Amino acid sequence: MSNQRQAxxxxxxxxxxxxxxxxxxxxLSLPKTPIRPDGRSPTQFRPLTAETNILPGTNGSAxxxxxxxxxxxVGVKAEVEKTILSNETLARxxxxxxxEQEGSxxxxxxxxxxxxxxxxxxxxxxxxLPVFLxxxxxxxxVGAVGTDETSDMTGGLKGRLVINKRWHWxxxxxxxxxxxxxxxxxxxxxxxxxxxxxxxKLPKLKSQGEEDPFFDDDWAVAEYLYPRxxxxxxxxxxxxxxxxxxxxxxxxxxxxENIIFDPNREEIAVADAVLAISITRDSxxxxxxxxxxxTVDPPSRLTQPGVPNSENVSMLGAVAPTExxxxxxxxxxxxxxxxxxxxxxxGVKRSVIAEMVKTALKKGGVGEEVLxxxxxxxxx
Amino acid sequence: xxxxxxxxxxxxxxxxxGRRWNELRLIQAQISTNPASSGSSYLSMGNTAIMCSVHGPxxxxxxxxxxxxxxxxxxxEVDVNVAGFSGVDRKRRAGGSDKQSSRIATxxxxxxxxxxxxxxxPHSTISIHVSVLSADGSLLAAAINACTLALVDAGIPMPxxxxxxxxxxxxxxxxPRDPRNDELDPLLDLSLPEEQELPVLTVGTTxxxxxxxxxxxxxEGDMKVAVLTMDSKLHYSYMETMLAVGxxxxxxxxxxxxxxxxxxSRA
Lengths: 380, 267
Known about the structure:
The structure holds two protein chains of two kinds.
Chain A: H1 2-6, H2 18-28, E1 48-52, E2 60-66, E3 71-82, H3 87-95, H4 99-108, E4 114-119, H5 128-143, H6 156-160, E5 167-177, H7 186-198, E6 201-202, E7 223-224, H8 236-241, E8 248-255, E9 258-261, H9 265-269, E10 273-281, E11 288-296, E12 327-329, E13 334-336, H10 350-361, H11 366-376
Parallel strand pairs in A: 4-5
Antiparallel strand pairs in A: 1-2, 2-3, 3-5, 6-7, 8-9, 8-10, 10-11, 12-13
Helix pairs in contact in A: 3-4
Chain B: H1 5-12, E1 27-31, E2 39-45, E3 48-59, E4 75-82, H2 99-115, E5 124-134, H3 139-153, E6 163-169, E7 186-188, H4 192-197, E8 200-207, H5 214-217, E9 223-230, H6 239-266
Parallel strand pairs in B: 4-5
Antiparallel strand pairs in B: 1-2, 2-3, 3-5, 6-7, 6-8, 8-9
GO cellular component, one term (chain B): nucleolus
GO molecular function (chain B): RNA binding
Domain Exoribonuclease phosphorolytic (chain B): 23-157
């Protein structure tokens, strides 16, 4: 248990020998045509099954299962809460100087109104991995701010939670990972949270203005937290893109010059760099925009190095010294003997990061594909 | 008039959710829901929904298995997680576990530790993970049923299905029972509002496998009570009725679960 808890960086490292790691690295870093252990293309995701609204007791819920058996369930619950304005803003309001400041707190919403907790079997919920994951997903969720002034979603999710100046919704997002994390669970959890938020409904408000909130008790007229395109609007794809959508966090790794999406555990183990990229749809232009990038500590640092024959005492004299000559690895700028594993020392080139972001964001790219796919899941 | 069982039940003989005293809630169950585990199940009794997954028997973690009794047989580990969204109001739990879930975990562990044929797997650990997705009464009973299904799915030998059910009385039942003027009815399979108001008994029973010469002559099947838990106060004269109703509920549930297990093997 204790060594499992320490694995905060990128989940457990599989027990692979230096020779296996080197083999994996070589096949994944083949220029232009990486060969993945499961035969996927670099941008291909693992097949998954998804369903929404599985828990009648929540405002919104979703379940996603990857083909390797890892499953996650997300339940979203909303509660009405009184907005507490800090003394500071109240005082400023009295003075009549900072009226706009006070308005921004009550109208724009507050990041702490969204709470997220992640349960991973074998981990306490204050362990490093769940806390890090939930904060990583929450910050992009809260940070997503719509730019469209006319829409309901001004101020993004935070703004949507405002009922009036004195009341707001508090959103609890609870993520349950149902199986041991076989790979770094971020993509699974992020996709499930996205789906759950898409299916989340809040009861229709009956009171107006600054009255104490009073809701319609008919659940059938409840409104989606993220407004959905009405079926009557003809051009579906254009209507779709005009709505603010919850962000999706994608896990991207680089191996050599190659960029690989949705890595499995073995692929993460040899990655040069692991990046968590949060993207969402830009409400105005309809294309994708970047919300945040986080680097995740690549577990390849912790692996055992292989020993080249030239340095191996037991092989002394058995091999001609000319056979293994150190070659400069263009991706890392380090001297390496081909076929001999060297733990990555971290650090990634700027051009590689730029390429990662570009692949995720470009039109018809991975991000668009993922968002389209999730939108296609029937939310009833 | 307040809507609770002790006032409305004597008038209508119907419970809050419209059931009669001896009716179970709708039970739906599925096994092999999670391919990443050795065995898994989903079980819902009314609005109580539970997912359970079993890992093992596998080599225990170092340090723990070498402890007490590790060599004699497998050790059963149970981890219960009541999801934050399971109740009506979202509950924040401090430190990852609360009293309710650790009590359920302890009961499950002691029930299955003695129920399973653990001696077949020395030096190993069977770990059970229970997630409560939605809680509406009879949590322990539903968890026991879900665990039984998952353990069957994992192929861990046991003498018979361990099934469980709750029974209660339709009033506070704190005074001795009057046999001539019996006002209170026993209730089967309590939901959360009933559970909070009335005395509840959780019964778990198992059948023993007919062995040897008893093989033929016991058509009824020998029933053993394996789990019995009660938190509330009750006059002992009601105990027998409640126990009888609970055991009867366990039998009904056993038939349902057997149907689930047999049905899934055909598919």
